[in-house]
Amino acid sequence: MCNRFSLTAELSDLTEDFRIDRVHVPYTRRYNISPTQQIPIIQQMGEERCLNQHRWGLMPYWGKNSINASVDTLGDRNYLRNMLTKKRCVIPCSGFYIWKQEGKSKSAWRVVHRSKTTFAMPGIYDVWLDSERNEFPMCTVITRGSAFDTDHALPLILEEESMEAWLNQKETRSEALQSLLQSLPEADFRTYSVNPFVEDRGLETPDCIAEIHPSLSLVKI
């Protein structure tokens, strides 16, 4: 699964690049975003494109680890199909992390887009109501296949025109929406070694995205 990513854009750049009309939540640059945390998301609210935040991971009855949804299953499961047709969002991302197994060691790598400093990952969301009817928005990232010969799922990326259609609340045709979800070639991405401490979800500093020599990215398991 795709289980770590970063969002390092300045708010001014984010609002300009994604044509965000209104910011509803405090925004800070994030270097090691982890499952179950609150993450920035973009959604259409009426005539405005807004920056909000949702819990990363569907819960409670899908489990806290439902942080990814494979595009191949969106049409097969009723709850996913319902979110696809009615509750879509975009998760802005500057890069995501993967771990490569090398014998008895594994190494940490960051994946970035070669031409986009921040890109749009498609997401779907729901709102869980607790016993007191308090609302808890939650989302998941749509993925396909695996990334760079690992068992990590590869997030899909929306181009600008596709993002416009994805956020269009009037579009409810499952087939049309799924047609927007196309994988990009791995050649469009660059990978580089990072410190293995990014696996610690408690660490969130610019050092997480710093490039290091590949030999320093290894950790024995």
The H-level CATH homologous superfamily, spelled out, is SOS response associated peptidase-like
Shape: globular
Largest sheet: 8 strands, mixed
Give the helix tally. 4
What is the CATH architecture descriptor?
A: Alpha-Beta Complex
Distance between the termini: 19 Å
* Integer-rounded radius of gyration: 17 Å
Structural class: mainly beta
Strand content: 35-45%
Low-confidence blocks of residues: none
Tell me what the structure shows:
- The protein has 221 residues and is mainly β.
- It has a single domain (5-95, 117-187), classed as hypothetical protein yedk fold.
- The chain contains 4 helices and 14 strands.
- The chain has helices at 11-17, 78-86, 160-167, 174-178; strands spanning 5-7, 22-23, 30-33, 38-45, 48-56, 68-70, 88-93, 95-102, 105-113, 119-129, 135-146, 153-155, 189-194, 218-220.
- The strands form 2 sheets. Strands 2, 4, 5, 6, 7, 10, 11 and 12 form an 8-stranded mixed β-sheet that branches. Strands 1, 3, 8, 9, 13 and 14 form a 6-stranded antiparallel β-sheet that branches.
- Strand 8 (95-102) and strand 9 form a beta hairpin.
- This is Abasic site processing protein.
- InterPro entries: SRAP, SRAP-like.
- It holds the Pfam family SRAP.
- Belongs to the SOS response-associated peptidase family.
- Keywords: Covalent protein-DNA linkage, DNA damage, DNA-binding, Hydrolase, Lyase, Protease.
